[in-house]
Predict the structure.
Amino acid sequence: MRHIIIIIGLLSFIFLSCYSDERDIYVVEVFEPGSQLYGSASAKKLNVTWEASARIEPYWKDCDDYLFVEMNTFNEVGSRRESLGFHGFQYKVGSYEIVSDVQKASINQRMIIDCLYSRLEADGDAVLATYRPNLSEENSFNIVSVDTVQNIIRGNFNIFLSLNLTTSDEVPDSLNFLEGV
């Protein structure tokens, strides 16, 4: 009887040590950047080259003081698949603190911004997952130059994200976009 308990214990240990969460084996999806008419962005998404279209618009309607940049990728038929946005920065050179609460970011007396990443499906309007900044990591968003004549803003970013909401078990618990420009 004692040998049976030891064998069951050993088999349980072997079975559990072989178990792997499927999210640990996430294959990075690569989508098309879409039109680069208004701007472009690139980064390393989980160490895989990521390219996206980019556009900058006022953060609030009829308010040019604060801006947001939205970076999108698309599937082969043109449906949006990813959206990475930084919200609430100003039209000036500087470094911004990234927060995960849009309400804190909208009180932008200091250099504070919000970030949200969405993974989309269907024809681009169904949310598969959303991610928010992991504030225990070293996140950065910097505006390095502003051309007021041509309305061009250049910057860089590094963002570590944690899963916020999802409708799928097939998305990773965390993402990062590094060396972003």
Q: What stands out?
A: The CA atoms of residues 128 and 168 lie 7 Å apart. Confidence is low (pLDDT under 50) at residues 5-23. Strands lie at 40-45, 48-60, 63-74, 80-90, 94-99, 112-121, 126-133, 140-147, 152-166, 174-180.
